[in-house]
Design a protein that fits this description.
The complex is a heterodimer of chains A (about 90) and B (about 425). Chain A has a single domain, classed as Beta-grasp domain (Ubiquitin-like (UB roll)), CATH 3.10.20. Helices cover about 15% and strands about 25% of the residues of chain A. Chain A contains 2 helices and 5 strands, in the order ββααβββ. In chain A, strand 3 and strand 4 form a beta hairpin. The relative contact order of chain A is 0.25. Chain B has about 425 residues and is α/β, with parallel strands linked by helices. Among the domains of chain B are: about 200 residues, 3-Layer(aba) Sandwich (Rossmann fold); about 80 residues, 3-Layer(aba) Sandwich (Rossmann fold), CATH 3.40.50. In chain B, helix 6 links the parallel strand 7 and strand 8. The N and C termini of chain B lie far apart (about 55 Å). Classes of the chains: A alpha+beta (about 90), B alpha/beta (about 425). At the A-B interface, strand 3 and strand 5 of A face helix 7 of B.
Chain lengths: ~90, ~425
Amino acid sequence: MPVQVRIPTPLRKYTGGKEAVAVDGASIANVIENLEKNHPGLKDRICEADGSVRRFVNLYVNGDDIRFLDNLQSKVKDGDEISIVPAIAGGF
Amino acid sequence: MSFVNGLKCRECGQAYEIAAVHVCETCFGPLEVEYDYDAVARSISRKKIESRPQNLWRYRELLPVESEPKIGLYSGYTPLVRADRLAEAFGVKDLWVKDDSVNHPTFSYKDRVVSVAMTKALELGFDTVSCASTGNLANSVSAHAARAGLRCFIFIPDNLERGKVIGSAIYRPTTVAISGNYDDVNRLCTEIADKYQWAFVNINVRPFYTEGAKTYGFEIAEQLGWRLPRHVIVPTAGGTILPKVAKAFEELVRVGLVKETPWKIYSAQAAGCAPVVNAIHRGSELIEPVKPQTIAKSIAIGNPADGFYVLEAVRKSGGWGEAATDEEIVAGIRLLAETEGIFTEPAGGTTVAVTKKLIEQGRIPRDESIVISVTGNGYKTLEAVLDVCEAPYPIPARLDDFDRLYDSLVEGGRAVALSR
């Protein structure tokens, strides 16, 4: 069940310059593992050594922050769009 | 020339050249400007600073620009108001309000950060400036861009109040309204910043932008007679200003402009959006994002990028954080207006309300110096207090009508001026 993962510029060197890649997976954790298989090195950029998401990386499923869902266990389904976005401060 | 060495990742320490980059390629951590403080210390002096015009550039040795600034020549150096009537209301002795509600030209602390970001953007050769915003930042970027003659794109959510839209639109930027909330706008802007060669003040020139916030702290110390306050209370949204005020105090000591004395810094948030204060109370390093629900819209950021650095600065100083309910925020706005004649937006009402709490909790002793940060202007957010302000008394233009009204007010105990 492929989902689309949008890749931010600093990580595109791992995806051959592609802005988005299709990956299989039933949860965010699955998706990250499969991303790593297809594009070695990516996981290290997204996660700490212990597997938790880095402090300055935000992950979204169809625009919803995974911390409002089920974090790494958040379920994903065919056609979902995952975004990897560097945390940036607001500017209200 | 400047005293800047370069940029450095705050998380992993990787060094970068000065450029429009804001995240570390390795760990996504934010990049921070590094200075040669020994050289600054040799060059800077109180006398030199005092001889300069009263704007934020008087501290230019500690700002990351190379050229003679052309932007923000009237920004900064806002009043530090001695607040004796508010002090009396709080039962404290030595209280001050740092009043950026009258910052030039758009009445918020954002005029500081935008002045520095835009000066840097010009140095780096950009001809277009931009930002994602719902208010103060967009107002400031639009106004400064107009004066500098720069092309300007503003990105806002499509459901904003009219006042906030007009407050930018009058300066004639190109305004793009995105269907979605602020997070959606910010995410789109990250992608646009990647693709278009524009200076997004809060994205790709952010390391320089945030340095501008230090001038708020520099001024507090200078205006207190070159000393640090014992306690300073700062509102927290994305987490830019609080760590930068702390950095300002540390830098002033480091370059020999003020004596090292103990100080504590406190974070103020709205109860409806208090991810950082929650983490302070839990003793946690993790900031759990929240969905904001508060009238304090200018500080309603549920997912503060620099929240961790707020925690770090607060804890290092021995400070604390508190949250204020919407009712307490409105009461804070009114109290500041009625005691000191300063009309602030809900962010400032939050800081006033939180200061009151910290004093009542005994966290801030009543006999030590306290500075309250007021970072925005109430005339922009009239909706917040529309329902609580007393309506005018309508009368015909006849003296006896006024006499009757006055007598009834005095009898009813409603003549406020007499009770003061």
